[in-house]
Design goal:
249 residues; single chain; 51% helix
């Protein structure tokens, strides 16, 4: 299939190819290998055919166990589903209202704090992603395809040597593509909960502002993200394999 940044499907609004970004040493992320999206739980057969045509062999669900249970993804034959929760989980969460509140809170969290609290999970996800990329295309997603997905996309592009400006640009466009998805999710919350939400928090929930990603990247640079991942098992050998699957000169 032709190299296209965004593929708008009827039930997937923020499905994007991470190919085409140039690195600082003039390599390029290849097209048709790594994708990010909102949750594909409502895809129909014809939409899954697009995944097959793109040679997507594995999909990675970054959502919590509760989210994955409440809105399961039924991947078709030849596409393997993997649940890889990004955030540390409270296994006791079973109440729908509590889960909804956690979802809303997650939309306005500081990304550096989210990453710091999930460094072991990030290293494990990167290890899985590296393995899956050697089998074919990969799509990773969370509920809205904004926060957890945005952090993982930033981590991968950072490790590949893509500039901060490109990483920020990739993140910022989410607000345009995914506004309806996030708003629909907020609209589904209990009225009593929505009445409690301050306007500034609502704005954060629906936005993907450049300064949000800038702050995450500043933390990654200052704290030597690559070294932190190495300490947790995603070392130079694994990073080289990741880059070998994604970069071409």
């Amino acid at each position: 299939m032709a190299a296209v940044r965004r593929r708008a499907l009827s039930h997937l609004h923020n499905f994007r190819d991470l190919g085409g970004y140039e690195t600082k040493d003039q390599a390029m992320i290849i097209w048709g290998k790594l994708f990010r999206s909102d949750c594909p739980d409502a895809l129909e057969d014809a939409e899954w055919d697009t995944f097959r045509a793109l040679n997507i062999r594995n999909i990675m669900d970054l959502r919590s166990t509760y989210e994955a249970k409440e809105n399961p993804v039924q991947a078709p034959e030849n596409i393997t589903y993997h649940h890889c929760p990004f955030l540390k989980e409270d296994a006791s969460i079973e109440d729908p209202e509590e889960a909804a509140r956690m979802f809303l809170d997650s939309l306005s969290l500081d990304y550096a704090v989210m990453l710091q609290n999930s460094l072991d999970e990030m290293a494990e996800i990167l290890l899985h992603l590296t393995d899956f990329l050697e089998e074919g295309g990969v799509d990773f997603f969370c509920t809205a395809g904004k926060d957890r997905t945005g952090i993982l996309a930033a981590a991968v592009l950072y490790l590949c040597g893509v500039s901060d400006e490109e990483i920020i640009a990739d993140y910022s466009v989410t607000e345009i593509y995914n506004a309806k998805v996030i708003q629909a999710r907020i609209d589904s919350l209990p009225e009593s909960m929505k009445a409690e939400i301050p306007p500034e928090k609502m704005n954060l929930a629906t936005a993907s502002k450049a300064e949000t990603m800038e702050a995450l990247l500043d933390w990654m640079h200052t704290n030597h993200f690559s070294h932190i991942m190495k300490e947790r098992g995603f070392g130079e050998e694994q990073a080289d394999r990741l880059r070998a699957s994604l970069l071409r000169r």
